[in-house]
Amino acid sequence: MHIAIAGNIGAGKTTLTRLLSKHFKWEAHYEDVETNPYLHSFYEDMQRWSFNLQIYFLNSRFRQVVEIRKGGKSVIQDRTIYEDAYIFAPNLHEMGLMPTRDFDNYATLFELMSSFISPPDLLIYLRSTVPNLVKQIQMRGRDYENSIRLDYLRSLNERYDNWINNYKAGKLLIVDVDDLDFINNPEDLGIVIDKINAEINGLF
Q1: At the N or C end, where does the chain have fewer CB atoms within 10 A?
Q2: Distance between CA atoms of 60 and 73, rounded to whole angstroms?
Q3: What does the pLDDT look like over 116-167, one tens digit per residue?
Q4: Is the dihedral of CA 89, 4, 32, 74 positive or negative?
Q5: What b/e sequence results for 50-59 when a residue is b if at least 16 CB atoms lie within 10 Å of its CB, and e otherwise?
Q6: Helical axes 186-201 vs 13-24, angle rounded to 10°
Q7: Three-state SS for 122?
Q8: pLDDT of residue 145
Q9: Strand order in 75-78's β-sheet?
Q10: How confident is the model at residue 72, as a pLDDT?
Q11: How far apart are the first and last CA of the chain?
Q12: Residue 192 has pLDDT above 90, yes or no
């Protein structure tokens, strides 16, 4: 079984991935943040490094999905390959931070890759307002995220909502996270676990 968590920067994907992996005994696949060779450079100069970063993520997530499907285990994945293609890359292109020729190249490559993989059995979308995202980003204190602009987060949120509203690839669970604290409030985590159990039971 392949469960994936989607959501904007700071929505709590990694935290929830870790907690659910522990609870359900699922194997966790995390987003490559610490060893990503482009992330710091991207936030310093988005226009210069946008294509490089998106290609790196596309390659990394494609490999993840291939490994997940080969492995035959129940896996929970922190962010999906679809978010890069439907949200981050087109957002960078629209903001003038990725040239059209690079975006077209990226889109063609994604289209080819996506024909070889299947969507997750269950997609969990963590929906959050921009003020909550900003609060979470500040709390975790990653230096390279200090330069993230509000209009960038806002634009991503709009794209996420549009993608989720039209998502038909598989089962979908939307969790509003503004008033949830997975780490410090076990009841909040329990609410999410109960919702996931209900969805999983419907998969079989």
Answers
A1: C
A2: 19
A3: 999 999 999 999 999 999 888 887 767 666 667 788 899 999 999 999 999 9
A4: negative
A5: bbebbbbbbe
A6: 70
A7: strand
A8: 66
A9: 27-29, 75-78, 2-7, 122-127, 171-176
A10: 86
A11: 11
A12: yes
Given 32, 78, 84, 178, the catalytic residue: 78
- Predicted confidence at residue 43, as pLDDT, reads 83
Distance CA 98, CA 23 (A): 40
Q: What is the pLDDT of residue 152?
A: 87
Helix axes 100-114, 46-71, angle to 10 degrees: 0
pTM for the full model? Answer: 0.90
> Is the domain covering 2-201 a CATH 3.40.50.300 domain?
yes
| 154's tokens | 């806002």
Task: Tell me if 170 sits within 8 A of 180, measured CB to CB.
Answer: no
Contacts of 186 (CB under 8 A, 6+ apart): none
Domain chopping of the chain, boundaries: 2-201
Assess whether 78 carries a catalytic annotation: yes
Cβ neighbours, 10 Å, residue 188? 16
Rounded CA-CA distance 4/29 in Å is: 9
**What pLDDT shows up at residue 187?**
94
Read off the pLDDT of residues 14-70 as tens digits, 9 standing for 90 and up.
999 999 999 999 999 988 777 889 988 988 898 999 999 999 999 999 999 999 988
With 0-12 / 13-18 / 19 or more C-beta atoms within 10 angstroms meaning exposed / middle / buried, residue 16 is buried
Under 8 Å between Cβ of 196 and 182:
no
